[in-house]
Structures are given as structure tokens and as C-alpha cells.
């Protein structure tokens, strides 16, 4: 069986800044977790994405990478548990980096999916009495969006246990 190699797609900081509504974030996540590639594997340079999300891509031949979404959800929950107990540090202007790779046609039970916190220039020691509720609220909001995506996948019959 032949496999198709796809290139990395880069989104610059302006893309993230262009996401103003909850629906913008949801569409961006669906785009990110989409299996449908819009570039040729023969191209050598990474693609610099436009800022508009094209919803028709998600309706294409590949659908969403449900295994990746489920694994990212698990990792966000682990991070949320840490932040729930954290009273030592306050995180300002920190970011989450989502990375995954793997063959969507493979029989593997898990794609290589990683969630990492990055951008620690503005981490401050806290007073030890309060937790960083802003970061925690952001993680919970992200979990709600991911749960909504998974619920829609399940309702459409596209979510199955692998």
C-alpha cells in the first residue's frame, strides 16, 4: 500500500490573532485536525496559510483526525489537572503548541500527538494562595470546543472507537 507524504503547514502569529470568536477558534481547530491536505506532497517549502478557514475542506474526502482530537483532549485534561493545583506560578502570554503526525490510513491505535506549553517569558511566581484561574479558564474553554467537535462527529456517525 502506498502512503502519501504531506508537508508541514505553518500558521504564523497573525493567524492566531485573526481568531476573534469562539466559532473562529472552533473552525481553526477543525481545519488543523482535518485529514484533507490542500497542497502537493511534491512541494518542498512549508505552506504559509491564509487567514481564512475554508469550511469546505472539512467536508472533503478525509474528515477529521478523531484519534488525534481524542489524544489532544486527554493531554489538555492532564494539563488542566496541573493548573487546578498550581498556586506557585502565574502564566501571562503563554501559548499551547499542538503537533501531530501519522498516517490516517494506518491501523495504529494512536497517532503521534503532542501538546506543549511554550512562551514562558512572562511567568511569575504567585503568592501561593491563589491559582491561575485565567489559564485554567482558557483550558476549560478549549475542552468545551473540543467536546463539541467530538459530539458533532459522534452525531454524524464519524466517531468510532479505534
Rg for CA atoms: 17 Å
Largest sheet: 2 strands, parallel
Relative strand content: 5-15%
Mean pLDDT metric = 78
Task: Report the uncertain regions.
Answer: 38-61
Helix content: 25-40%
Task: State the strand order across the main sheet.
Answer: 1-2
Q: State the distance separating the first and last CA atoms.
A: 20 Å
Q: Identify the overall geometry.
A: globular
SSE topology string: EHHEHEEEEH
What is the number of strand segments?
6
Structural class: alpha+beta
Keywords: ATP-binding, Kinase, Nucleotide-binding, Transferase
InterPro entries: IPK, IPK_sf
Protein name: Kinase
Catalytic activity: 1D-myo-inositol 1,4,5-trisphosphate + 2 ATP = 1D-myo-inositol 1,3,4,5,6-pentakisphosphate + 2 ADP + 2 H(+); 1D-myo-inositol 1,3,4,6-tetrakisphosphate + ATP = 1D-myo-inositol 1,3,4,5,6-pentakisphosphate + ADP + H(+)
Structure description:
The chain is an alpha+beta fold. The protein is 36% helix and 15% strand. It has four helices and six strands. The protein has helices spanning 13-17, 22-32, 66-85, 133-155; strands at residues 9-10, 47-48, 89-91, 95-101, 112-118, 123-125. The strands form three sheets. The chain has a two-stranded parallel sheet. Strands 3-6 form a two-stranded antiparallel sheet. Helix 3 packs antiparallel against helix 4 (133-155). The model is unreliable at 38-61 (pLDDT under 50).
Amino acid at each position: 500500500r502506498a502512503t502519501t507524504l504531506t508537508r508541514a503547514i505553518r500558521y504564523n502569529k497573525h493567524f492566531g490573532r485573526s481568531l476573534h470568536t469562539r466559532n473562529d477558534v472552533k473552525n481553526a481547530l477543525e481545519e488543523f485536525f482535518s485529514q484533507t491536505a490542500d497542497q502537493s506532497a511534491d512541494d518542498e517549502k512549508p505552506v504559509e496559510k491564509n487567514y481564512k478557514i475554508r469550511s469546505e475542506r472539512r467536508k472533503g474526502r478525509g474528515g477529521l483526525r478523531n484519534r488525534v482530537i481524542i489524544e489532544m483532549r486527554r493531554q489538555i485534561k492532564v494539563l488542566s489537572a496541573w493548573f487546578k493545583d498550581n498556586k506557585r506560578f502565574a502564566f501571562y502570554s503563554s501559548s499551547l503548541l499542538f503537533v501531530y503526525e501519522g498516517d490516517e490510513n494506518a491501523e495504529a491505535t494512536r497517532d503521534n500527538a503532542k501538546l506543549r506549553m511554550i512562551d514562558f517569558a512572562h511567568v511569575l511566581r504567585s503568592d501561593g494562595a491563589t491559582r491561575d484561574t485565567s489559564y485554567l479558564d482558557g483550558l476549560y474553554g478549549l475542552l468545551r470546543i473540543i467536546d463539541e467537535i467530538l459530539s458533532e462527529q459522534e452525531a454524524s456517525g464519524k466517531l468510532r472507537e479505534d
